[in-house]
Amino acid sequence: HQSIPFIFVSGFKDQNTLNAISKTKNDGFILKDQPLSFLKEWIRYLLTPPDRRPNIPPVEKSDAVYKRTRDESYHRRR
């Protein structure tokens, strides 16, 4: 079971949480307020064989980017 990837998902990003997860074996950390597409990026990244994955894992984007994207998506659907 040691080869199964683990993504830590939390609603908190305070120093206590970051210290706690730094002591565990995890492959990624995602805040609960991130869109589902970000979780899917992480899953694709972790399912890609290590020798073929990008050197940098998926990066959390700012709220402003997501709000704009949500608004644009909403307008595209109408």
Kindly describe this structure.
The protein contains 3 helices and 2 strands; from the N terminus they run E-H-E-H-H. 45% of the residues lie in helices and 10% in strands. It has helices at 15-22, 36-47, 63-77, and strands at residues 7-10, 28-31. A two-stranded parallel ribbon has the order 1-2. The longest helix is centred in the last third of the chain and has 15 residues, at 63-77. The radius of gyration is 15 Å and the shape is globular.
Give the beta-strand count.
2
Main structural class: mainly alpha
Order of helices and strands: EHEHH
Helix content: 40-55%
List keywords for this structure.
about 45% helix, globular, about 80 residues
Write the layout of secondary structure elements.
Layout (H helix, E strand, L loop, with lengths): L6 E4 L4 H8 L5 E4 L4 H12 L15 H15 L1
Parallel strand pairs: 1-2
Could you write a compact summary of the structure shown?
With 78 residues, the chain is mostly helical. It has helices spanning 15-22, 36-47, 63-77, and strands at 7-10, 28-31. The protein has a two-stranded parallel sheet with strand order 1-2.
